[in-house]
Amino acid sequence: MDIIANYGTTLVLVAALFGFLMAWGIGANDVANAMGTSVGTKSLTIRQAIIIAMIFEFAGAYLAGGEVTATIRNGIIDSNAFVDSPDLLVLGMIASLLAAGAWLILASYFGWPVSTTHSIIGAIVGFAVVSIGPEAVQWSKFGGIVGSWVITPAISGIIAYFMFISVQKLIFNTDDPLNNAKRYVPFYMFLTALVICLVTIKKGLTHVGLHLTDGEGILLSVAISIAVAFAGWIYIRGQKYNPQDDSKMHFANVEKVFGILMVITACAMAFAHGSNDVANAIGPLSAVASIVASGGEIGGSSHIAWWILPLGGIGIVIGLATMGEKVMATVGTGITHLTPSRGFAAQLATAATVVIASGTGLPISTTQTLVGAVMGVGLARGIAALNLGVLRNIVVSWIITLPAGAILAIAIFYVLQACFS
């Protein structure tokens, strides 16, 4: 308790610095995963992807990032175990932020698409075990989170598989693919907008003053989605399509239509990612800020300080802009050959899975969800369409991440203890 009383402001500033570093790592690694399909299909340039991420990642983090933050802050460890020693919880959360952030930046440097969720959860569990003991970890909730790492890629893979099958049935395997693309792609735009709007309006905007009933939320979501679909329909009809392009690359004009849709799904994916994964950076930071502000009191509900969500959003955007290119290449071109139509199916499936998880407060791995979706699209073309070697390397990096976060956090925790005591 003396550490909090004597160094409270310093602890919050250090936590904010390390939280920003963690958000930077998330931007470099996980956002690169999220935008990799758009860049890999050449629907967006890297510069365009960064601009979209700047807007929609920040919006997702600020408008819909609160639900998952509560799970990260209170759900993985039993905060009651730290009631008599809140200084250990504060130092542990700071250590977790630095450990996970350092690991993510290292992985991004080498182009490894790892899980930010694995990193921070491993770090939190690591310091909790050495500071209090195994009883400080809520293993039942931890087991549920681990289960979600298997379930969510499967869900996103299934959604992506059937989404792409529907595209094949309605558009590619028809006598007039281009006209059918013009007809059905606005409907896919409607679906994409609806997924985002339903969760955002109902879950995300309550803490910024907009309180809607279920009926009002649904009506507003449908209205916005119809507007998006109508605008897309007008834009698609206004584009010029050259039949000669199809002789150079089969279905080139159809893929051009889906390239327009990829911009919509990229926005959805960025928003979905910001709403879910910002919690990995600001959850521990929010815990530190609230404990210090209360003078060491743990427990009870606490509001997220106004400056924490923007800090996480800004860090994510800067991380993508400075270090995201290598991981984008791994995800966008390494797992399977992606075209705009395949990339759309993978992105919409991932966005739907991530936003639903964010709304229910379950911290999932965006990396694993996206890889599951890309695999689902690849499997729609047969197992030979998948690069199993790249998938094996990705899975190995996932396995390493959990213990790496724990080991780094334990080492940093002991260093912080020595510094502040």
TrEMBL record:
Biological processes, Gene Ontology terms: phosphate ion transmembrane transport
* Protein's membrane topology: Multi-pass membrane protein
Describe the family membership recorded for this protein in Swiss-Prot or TrEMBL: Belongs to the inorganic phosphate transporter (PiT) (TC 2.A.20) family.
Which keywords label this protein?
A: Membrane, Phosphate transport, Transmembrane, Transmembrane helix, Transport
Domain of life, per the record? Bacteria
Signal peptide location:
none
Question: Where is it predominantly found?
Answer: membrane
Name of this protein: Phosphate transporter
Keyword set includes Cell inner membrane: no
Give the transmembrane ranges: 12-32, 44-64, 88-112, 145-164, 185-205, 217-236, 257-275, 304-323, 344-364, 370-388, 395-416
Keyword Membrane found: yes
**A cellular component term (GO) from this record?**
membrane
Coiled coil (UniProt feature): none
Q: Name one Pfam family in it.
A: PHO4
GO function terms (MF aspect)? phosphate transmembrane transporter activity
Compartmental location: Membrane
